[in-house]
Amino acid sequence: MKLLPKPLYRTHFGEAYVGDALDLLKCLPDESIDLVITSPPFALQRQKEYGNVDQDEYVDWLLSFTIEVKRVLKNTGSFVLDLGGAYRKGRPVRSLYNYRILIRLCDEQGWNLAEEFFWFNPSKLPSPIEWVNKRKIRVKDAVNTIWWLAKTDFPKADVTKVLVPYSERMKLLLRNSEKYYSPKRRPSGHDISVRFSEDKGGAIPPNLLQIPNTESNSQYLRYCKIVGIKPHPARFPQKLPEFFIKLLTDIGDIVLDIFAGSNTTGAAAESLNRRWIAFEIDQTYLAASAFRFLDNKIENIAGMLYEKLSSEKVIETIAIPQVTQLQLMEERERI
């Protein structure tokens, strides 16, 4: 087994690597990762600057990675895959690529579908323009499919870590259960016991995750603006990986994102005291992702840090956020 190259940067909990994820995955030991969560470039009609693959080739392309993902994942681990929808080229007909991926993962590679989730992004812009805005024959596509997959029937999971606030009606019931609730079998066949009125700290969330993707004033975007570079064009909100990291891992577990982009997953894992590994083939995107881990008081060296991290050769791994202005200046002199 080959060893991983030097990481581009490291933080207290994680390391970020530049390279093709397929090559880097082969450097990881068997059954060493607790959670793989990723949002690969989607199978869109038109090429995007972040390097999406043509729809006709996409399924085979993605499945070449998931063989290695399964090898490195622990038996108690999970694989969470976020896939956006798409239309067929030139037609108001939906592509089935995301469902073909799911079926082939289960039928050909032996994955189990633990549960399907749907990420509803209410702030998503109407698209595609031709069918939604111009001809007005389709509605806005605002939901991504998220497949939660596992190697076994019982991957590690704890719903009590992701409870959501009770509804106002439920709060009323908990305050005065005798007035609003009586234990009995419902017409649906459900046998509602007296324990239904117990306060368990929150409600069990549904598999519809309503998370707006409206990042506008984050530290990452602020530093990108200061340095004068374009941020990654396809970022997902940090609350999305946070949900699955909380649900499927414990403190100290290892989280891997094989298409890290601006490394939202790494930032989410860092905030939750999980170890993380990020793979990203575009060094400029990964270099800018370091902004997520900087102290917000070192704006004056952000440009110098980006210059070092985006240089062609990784000379020495940068430790973030322990990096200081003096260290960067010394490194700049040596380059």
CATH domain class name of the largest domain: Alpha Beta
Helix content: 25-40%
CATH fold type of the largest domain: Rossmann fold
Rg calculated over all Cα atoms: 22 Å
- How would the global form be characterised? globular
How are the strands of the largest sheet arranged?
Answer: 9-5-6-4-3-10-11-2-1-12
Give the beta-strand count.
12
Compute the number of structural domains.
Answer: 2
- What does the largest sheet look like? 10 strands, mixed
Number of distinct helices: 12
**How far apart, in Å, are the first and last alpha carbons?**
32 Å
The CATH H-level superfamily of the largest domain is Vaccinia Virus protein VP39
Write down the overall mean pLDDT. 86
Task: Point out poorly predicted stretches.
Answer: none
* Structural class computed from helices and strand pairing: alpha/beta
Can you walk through the features of this model?
- This protein is of the alpha/beta class and 335 residues long.
- The protein has 2 domains: 9-162 and 204-214 and 235-282, Rossmann fold; 165-203, no CATH class.
- It is 32% helix and 18% strand.
- It has 12 helices and 12 strands.
- It has a 10-stranded mixed beta sheet with strand order 9-5-6-4-3-10-11-2-1-12, with helices on both faces. A two-stranded antiparallel sheet has the order 7-8.
- Helix 9 links the parallel strand 10 (254-257) and strand 11.
- Helix 2 (55-72) runs parallel beside helix 3, helix 8 (239-248) crosses helix 9 (264-271) and helix 10 (283-289) packs antiparallel against helix 11 (302-309).
- The longest helix is centred in the first third of the chain and has 18 residues, at 55-72.
- The radius of gyration is 22 Å and the shape is globular.
